[in-house]
Amino acid sequence: MSLTSEPLRIGVAGLGRAFMLMLPSFRSDARVRLVAAAAPRAESRKAFEAEFGGRGHADVEALAADPEVEAIYVATPHQMHAEHVEAAARHGKHVLVDKPLAVTLEDADRMVAAADAAGVRLIVGPSHSFDAPVMQARAMIESGEFGAVRMVQALNYTDFLYRPRRPEELRTEEGGGVLFSQGVHQIDIVRLLCGGNARRITAMTGAWDPERPTEGAYAALMSFDNCTFATMTYSGYAHFDSDIWMGDVGELGADKTPEQYGKARRALAGLDAQSEARLKSTRTYGSGGDLPKARHHEHFGPILVCCDRADLRLTPDGVEVFGDTQRRFIEAPLGTSTRETVIDALWEAIREARAPAQTGRWGRASLEVCHAILRSAESGETVALTRQCGLTDQETTT
To answer: Residue 173: how many CA atoms within 13 Å on its side-chain side?
Structure first.
């Protein structure tokens, strides 16, 4: 095969929950081939070798040095991202790093610098900004048919805080809580729809359960340099479920039933921290069990984009347009997998030298907003943003 048509040879750093969520796309897309993995659990490495015939490594440094690996998907815990991205870049590997880019902005700066110095691509995702209806809405905005974006409203109510967690996932300073794991999705989507260059944040956060001592909710007002503004609301306290406003479609694109309500809190009842961590380990690769069948696109809750000549409502199946005099629905057909757009971005960046919006600089800008929300909530003041980038200038913004 020629270099431009042969599958991307992917190494995976981390075989936990993040990898499980990408696995259906890796399995179904002929443009990628999994050739190696690094994970601390021997059971996961053996399962990987059995399914993909690749090489299992005990650490990421060995994975990065593997000559068969062309690009690395970094799916390790948040606080390890900087070390693992730097290792990949040092060995000349392109990188897809799961969101968030890092926990600290200092680490984010190092990661962007490392990729630049090595001349490798750094893409941050999957995030829900890759969801096909989001990309569809962005294209509709760029067409100019509906005029300028004036306001975006995004909200999501989930059971996030009561899904099985390791202890560090409940400590904000280690990347725990809803901001770094969930808020970054919402921020990424809103920035993409509004053009990217956010300028100020005013926010409040909530940490209301002493047994889950981290932020479980936030509300924020974000303004942009084009006079657009957006409101973002999130709660992970496992009461109201905003998926009922999305046609009872879950975040991963599978249909939900009323019997699933309260499942997260019921599963944690009576568990201590060690038992909860063991429960989380059952959601990793090699532990058995597949994800429910996705019959729709993934989504991140209700999102409404208000433009000059229409409001656009994002759904798991496409975009509903509320125009001046007419209402219509524009479908986003489901491809081979819900995360096909992530593989699109990886392929185009490496094989066609076309970077997506979600570069390392873009991921750093979204991370800055996470920190700004925390700072604004603590100080009660509006926080100015200084590391932002637009849709077309992230390759050169420092």
So the answer is: 0
Domain co-membership, 119 together with 174: no
Q: What is the CATH number of the domain that holds 307?
A: 3.30.360.10
pLDDT in tens, 110-164: 999 999 999 999 999 999 999 999 999 999 999 999 999 999 999 999 999 999 9
| Claim to verify: residue 180 and residue 266 sit in the same structural domain | yes
Domain that holds residue 182: 129-331
Q: Are residues 77 and 155 in the same domain?
A: no
Parallel/antiparallel/unpaired status of strands 122-124 and 327-331: unpaired
- Tell me, what's the pLDDT at 1? 34
Strands (E), the chain: 8-13, 32-38, 55-57, 71-74, 94-97, 122-124, 149-157, 198-206, 217-224, 229-235, 303-307, 310-315, 318-323, 327-331, 383-384
Per-residue pLDDT at 131:
98
Residues of the chain with pLDDT under 50: 1-2, 394-398
396 in a domain, yes or no? no
Residues 218 and 350 in one domain: no
The pLDDT tens digits for 265-323 are 999 999 999 999 889 888 888 776 677 889 999 999 999 999 999 999 999 999 999 99
Residues paired with residue 12 on neighbouring β-strands, in sequence order: 37, 73
Rounded-to-5 percentages of helix, strand, coil across the chain: 40, 20, 40
Q: How far apart are CA 112 and CA 364, in angstroms?
A: 8
216 vs 205: CA distance, rounded Å: 8
- As beta bridge partners, residue 218 has 205, 234
- Give me the number of domains the chain comprises: 2
Are 96 and 12 within one domain? yes
Which of 219, 222, 174 lies closest to 197, judged by CA?
222
Task: Please report the pLDDT score of residue 285 as a whole number.
Answer: 86
